[in-house]
Write a structure and sequence with these properties.
It comes from Pan paniscus. With about 230 residues, the chain is mainly alpha-helical. The chain is built from nine helices and three strands; from the N terminus they run E-H-H-E-E-H-H-H-H-H-H-H. The chain has a single domain, classed as Transferase(Phosphotransferase), domain 1, CATH 1.10.510.10. It is about 50% helix and about 5% strand. Strands 1-2-3 form a three-stranded antiparallel sheet. Helix 1 crosses helix 7, helix 2 crosses helix 7 and helix 8 packs antiparallel against helix 9. The longest helix has 21 residues. The chain is globular and about 40 Å long. The chain starts with a strand and ends with a helix.
C-alpha cells in the first residue's frame, strides 16, 4: 500500500512544507542509493523510471520508492533531465544517477509550488534552495550527486530540531490513507455491554419479553442516558 506525492498534496490542497521537503529528499536519496547498489546498466528496466509527483511513492513505513506504472497519461517532460530529452548516450551509472537527481529536484520544486498563487514566491530556506538548484542543473557534470544530497540532509538534521525524516513521510501517507491502526473503530460502551450480557443471543431469543430481563433492561436504560 502506498501513496504518490501527487495524491498526498491533492488531498491537502497545498504545498509541501520545508521540513517535509527535506524529509522526502532524504528518504528518496536513500532509496536511490540503495537502488544503485543493486542494479547495473545491464538492467535498464530497473532504472527506466522517471521520478515525478506521480511516480514518487510514499510508504506507510516512512520510506520512499519509485514506479513507472500507471503514469503514461502524465506529461513528464518538466521532470525529465535535458540529456534524456536530447537522447544523449549514457555511459555510466553516475550518468543515470544524475538523471534521477534532476527529476527528484524538479519533483520537489513542484511539491513546494503546489497550489501556491503565482503572485506569491516559493518559501524555501537558502540551504534547501541551494541543494535543489544543484540537483536541477541543466549540465549533467555540474549536477550534485546522491552522496552530496545525503550529506546535506544529514547536516540539516544535525543542526535543526526536526523530527526523523520517516515521520514526515508517514504523516503525508496518513493524509490519504488515514491512520491504518484505526481502520476498525473502538466499540461503544453499549456494544461492549451487549457483548458481555448477550454473547450468543439468537434472533429468536431477542423476542423474550422485557420482564424476563429486569436487571439487564434497567442497566441498559441507565447506560443509554449516560452515553
Amino acid at each position: 500500500m502506498h501513496v504518490s506525492l501527487a495524491e498526498a498534496l491533492e488531498v491537502r490542497g497545498g504545498p509541501l512544507q520545508e521540513e517535509e521537503i527535506w524529509a522526502v529528499l532524504n528518504q528518496s536519496a536513500e532509496s536511490l542509493q540503495e537502488l544503485f547498489r543493486k542494479v547495473s546498466l545491464a538492467d535498464p528496466a530497473a532504472l527506466g523510471f522517471i521520478i515525478s509527483p506521480w511516480s514518487l511513492l510514499l510508504l506507510p513505513s516512512g520510506s520512499v520508492s519509485f514506479t513507472d506504472e500507471n503514469i503514461s497519461n502524465q506529461d513528464l517532460r518538466a521532470f525529465t533531465a535535458p540529456e534524456v530529452l536530447q537522447n544523449q548516450s549514457l555511459t555510466s551509472l553516475s550518468d543515470v544517477e544524475k538523471i534521477h537527481i534532476y527529476s527528484l529536484g524538479m519533483t520537489l520544486y513542484w511539491g513546494a509550488d503546489y497550489e501556491v498563487p503565482q503572485s506569491q514566491p516559493i518559501k524555501l530556506g537558502d540551504h534547501l534552495n541551494s541543494i535543489l538548484l544543484g540537483m536541477c542543473e541543466d549540465v549533467i557534470y555540474a549536477r550534485v550527486s546522491v552522496r552530496t544530497v545525503l550529506d546535506a540532509c544529514s547536516a540539516h538534521i544535525r543542526n535543526s530540531n526536526c523530527a526523523p525524516s520517516f515521520s514526515y513521510v508517514k504523516h503525508l501517507v496518513k493524509l490519504v490513507l488515514g491512520n491504518l491502526s484505526g481502520v476498525f473503530p473502538k466499540p461503544s460502551p453499549l456494544s461492549l455491554l451487549l457483548g458481555t450480557l448477550l454473547p450468543s443471543v439468537s434472533r429468536e431469543s431477542m423476542l423474550v419479553s422485557l420482564p424476563d430481563f429486569p436487571k439487564t433492561w434497567t442497566l441498559l436504560v441507565f447506560l443509554l442516558f449516560w452515553i
